[in-house]
């Protein structure tokens, strides 16, 4: 705890004296920040129990260098063993990624390459994180179609050919302005107005078709906006929430591209990756559905700002609305209804807004201190 206290003091000093008073207030409040930083040591015990008996789950994660891949790989490596989880992407990763476990080049648009990887590495689970997200997709529709539709078809065909368990994330973006919005039920009208949302509805429907037609073990969770401290989101509409935390600690000011009253469903990355693993471990015959909503919290930029100001009261947020991303957000759910996941496979979130704010501020502070120490 003391180390973290010094780290936060150090960051505050860097940001100017008025920030040190804010951070001092946090420290003197005696909040035990460390305990809110989630640990998966429980899987460590499971790993020594199960991995020693030749647990043959071999996982390939595509799009592994995006916001979620590295966090998911960490969790799966604790569960199945470091060398049984292969991270892949078309980009060269930072050097530490090579140290953390197997990393290979994989291009989902190259069916032959994908097939070779699956066969040569005896893959049994395929987690498909490659995607062009909402805002980037609206500015490059051809790329979004190529990656999110053609690439996805390759994934489906390789998974079916080799009898893999395949996970493809969907999103709140799979709903549109004509869907019920608060909350959005699992089964309802889906007429999204982004190429990202259209491609994800296509993925849900095609995955379920392959399940019923060929027996493919297809699984899909509709993710809310995901927040993570040590990885950047990749050009979506919910990215403001992550950017706000970094700005709060760096300069104390953030210009938000959404209106202050724009409520969106959000989730902390640890809940997201844990939900994904728990869902993937359910025996396929025990799942009544293939596609589920999962929900944790929902907030507006104003509500997030107010929660952070409880720790950093001098934080200033101004608004400069981006019409494209505001229009996208205005067509998305305000909250997801997720009772089916809670009933069918015991989904339960652990992070609400206060825990999110404590954890994000603590982890970003730690990250800055470590970067400055190098
Ligand atoms: C986006 N972060 O904003 C992604 C996500 C729920 C939204 O799919 O596009």
Structure description:
The chain has 374 residues and is of the alpha/beta class. Helices cover 49% and strands 13% of the residues. The strands form 3 sheets. Strands 1, 2, 3, 4, 5, 6, 7 and 11 form an 8-stranded parallel β-sheet that branches. Strands 8-10-12 form a 3-stranded mixed β-sheet. Strands 9-13 form a two-stranded parallel ribbon. β2, α6 and β3 form a beta-alpha-beta unit. α4 packs across α5 and α11 runs parallel beside α13. The radius of gyration is 21 Å and the shape is globular. The chain binds (3R)-3-hydroxy-L-norvaline. The site of (3R)-3-hydroxy-L-norvaline has 13 residues, from loops.
Which key phrases capture this entry?
374 residues; alpha/beta; Rossmann fold; 8-stranded parallel β-sheet; 3-stranded mixed β-sheet; 16 helices
Précis, in short:
It contains 16 helices and 13 strands.
Element layout with pairings:
Elements: H1 2-14, H2 17-28, H3 33-36, H4 41-51, E1 59-62, H5 69-80, E2 85-89, H6 95-100, E3 103-105, H7 111-120, E4 125-128, H8 134-139, H9 141-161, E5 165-167, E6 170-171, H10 195-214, E7 217-223, E8 225-227, H11 240-250, E9 253-256, E10 264-268, H12 269-280, E11 291-293, E12 297-299, H13 301-309, E13 316-319, H14 323-330, H15 339-344, H16 353-373
Helix pairs in contact: 1-2, 1-16, 4-5, 5-12, 7-9, 9-10, 11-13
The chain binds (3R)-3-hydroxy-L-norvaline (VAH).
């Amino acid at each position: 705890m003391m180390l973290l206290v010094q780290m936060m003091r150090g960051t505050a000093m860097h940001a100017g004296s008025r920030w040190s008073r804010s951070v001092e207030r946090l420290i003197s409040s005696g909040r035990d920040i460390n305990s809110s930083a989630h640990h998966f040591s429980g899987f460590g015990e499971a790993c020594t129990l199960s991995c020693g008996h030749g647990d043959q789950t071999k996982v390939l994660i595509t799009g592994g260098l995006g916001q979620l891949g590295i966090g998911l790989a960490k969790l799966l490596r604790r569960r199945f063993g470091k060398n049984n989880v292969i991270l892949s992407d078309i980009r060269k990763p930072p050097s530490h990624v090579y140290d953390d476990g197997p990393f290979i080049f994989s291009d989902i648009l190259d069916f032959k390459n994908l097939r070779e990887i699956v066969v040569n590495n005896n893959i049994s689970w395929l987690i498909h994180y490659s995607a062009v997200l909402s805002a980037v997709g609206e500015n490059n529709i051809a790329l979004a179609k190529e990656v999110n539709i053609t690439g996805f078809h390759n994934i489906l065909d390789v998974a079916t050919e080799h009898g893999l368990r395949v996970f493809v994330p969907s999103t709140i973006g799979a709903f549109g302005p004509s869907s019920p919005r608060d909350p959005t039920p699992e089964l309802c009208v889906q007429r999204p107005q982004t190429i990202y949302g259209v491609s994800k509805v296509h993925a849900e429907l095609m995955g379920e078709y392959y399940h019923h037609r060929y027996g493919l073990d297809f699984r899909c969770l509709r993710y809310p906006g995901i927040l993570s401290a040590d990885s950047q989101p990749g050009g979506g509409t919910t990215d403001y929430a992550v950017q706000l935390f970094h700005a709060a600690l760096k300069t104390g000011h953030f210009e938000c591209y959404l209106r202050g009253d724009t409520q969106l469903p959000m989730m902390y990355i640890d809940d997201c990756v844990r939900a994904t693993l728990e869902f993937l471990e359910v025996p396929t015959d025990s799942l009544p559905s293939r596609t589920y909503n999962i929900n944790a919290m929902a907030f507006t930029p104003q509500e997030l700002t107010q929660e952070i100001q409880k720790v950093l009261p001098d934080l200033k947020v101004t608004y400069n609305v981006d019409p494209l991303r505001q229009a996208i957000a205005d067509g998305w759910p305000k909250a997801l209804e997720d009772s089916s996941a809670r009933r069918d496979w015991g989904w339960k979130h652990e992070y609400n807004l206060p825990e999110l704010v404590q954890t994000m501020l603590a982890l970003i502070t730690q990250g800055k201190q470590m970067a400055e120490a190098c």
